[in-house]
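G.,

No rush on this.
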Amino acid sequence: MVCDTITYHPTLTKLINFLETNNGRDKLLRTLQYVTKLLAYYLLRTGSSVNHYYLVRRLQDLFTLSRKPLRALKPLKHLKALSVTVDNELGDGYTKLFESVKQASYSLYYGFDTVHWLKLLGLLRNRNGKLLVKVEQVCSFFWLVALVSGLLQNVRQLRVSYLRKQELLKELASDDDQNPLDKRGNLEKQKETLDTQNVQLYRAKRDLVIHALNSLVAINGLSQKRVNNGVAGGAGVITSILQLQDLWNATSTTESSVL
């Protein structure tokens, strides 16, 4: 039946599983947040109706506020990642340094983001301290530090993966004198490793683009004079779509158990 076909369709199951996750809902709301930010900038620049502009701004604020509780406990995740990174003694030193700074900055960013959420709810007042007055700028600052660290980490990963790829290509070219059986086994292993390096190169390039565009959004949060809302909104939409794609591809198509 048509109803059964729709009910048990893998895409519907995947969509349900996607929306059941915090990250899925957060990235979907993030996309809407930056779409409305970009639209508000467009309405302002084109001299559209003031009512339309304030309606879109109100929607943007609602989407922004709706994301806050979904991220309230994220500092724990990044603190754990920081601890794991610091304990890792086998990785590249530069990558470890950049990853440590990134995770520490994300922990502070999400921590202050929770403070900002409480401020928006009216639970914290500006009289409690000067830091509270500029908590949004503080969030943007630590986010920018995390993004810059991520950028440097991506550049380092690109270099390491590229050099490793070149070594593998040289090894493949110098295996002509080996025993045919040994050569075949080594060739398969080297090709698998080469495929892994290609995937890592692609991932590093994609992450570099996301970090670079998100940096524009973070700079906009620090000062709209440096990056206007139109650029920040456009960058936010692009990165949101890229991150939605990653989450969607990682979402399972199997039925999740109902408790």
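When you get to it, here's the other one too:
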Amino acid sequence: MNKKVLLACLLAFILLIIGVIIGLYVRKKKQSQVFIESDYPFTYEVLKDNTLKITLDGSKTKQLTWTYEIEDEEYISVTPKGKEHGGKATFIVAPKASGLTNIKFKRSTDLAGYAYDAAVINAPIYVTETNGGLAISFLENPWLAVGPEPVAEDTDYPFLISYNEVGSPELLYIKGKNDWTVADPNNIVTTMISSGADGVDSEIIYKFVETKTVQASVTDADLEGYSIDSNGELQIDEGAFPMGSIGTTQEVYDPTAGMILDTTITVQSQTLNRTEYLDVHIDVNGNITVTKGEAPKN
């Protein structure tokens, strides 16, 4: 093989490599990713046939399976592309008619018979008519909601770290509280327990605040139990108020308001001979997050 042929082959090989790199780069640019830093990355791409290709990565929870629910099947269809492998699954979303709908991708599981969603991704879909066909896109970015975190799942009385409808963290004892006891050595948070009709006990975690006695001011002399005498002085009907109740009131006092706080609480069971450690973080707005932690190092 002469030198010219060798150079031509080498040049062709280099051009091929450059073409592959450019092709991969262009394809990568067509793809969009959200939740990259989470346990459930979400990749999507609009294909040439105006369908939407969605790839979900649940490799950190391989034991679970991706399922989906369509809010209104009049506007789109969803078809799995191949089988889920290693927690990763791909779906093709095809438009059927113009309109708005939502796809809910879920990874569901249960703990001791209590079913819950480990993760839910909502994908709002918008289908429009264009040039005699249909175009599909997201109405807004998909959003991810991570479900409760199981704790002590290998015991007879496991529980979940969850959040109620107002965003407060709570421990859900799905088979009852048994003798689990929560304690914070730093007195930053405290708890309140309530029992549910389904046998699930809930223990809400909230920031510990103090109360203090302050002087009360009376501004309405027409209230029952008050009167004004001929000298214009306030008279109190002692029978209407218990001793010591006039002139003072209890107010909430939070000396750490606006501060970032962290603590590790213990959840301990004597009968199970088990202690769990939960990390608690409070931001400047007073929002509380709770995650599984580890025993403090001595």
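The chain is about 10% helix and 50% strand. The chain has three domains: 31-146, 149-209+254-292, 211-253.

Enjoy the weekend,
O.
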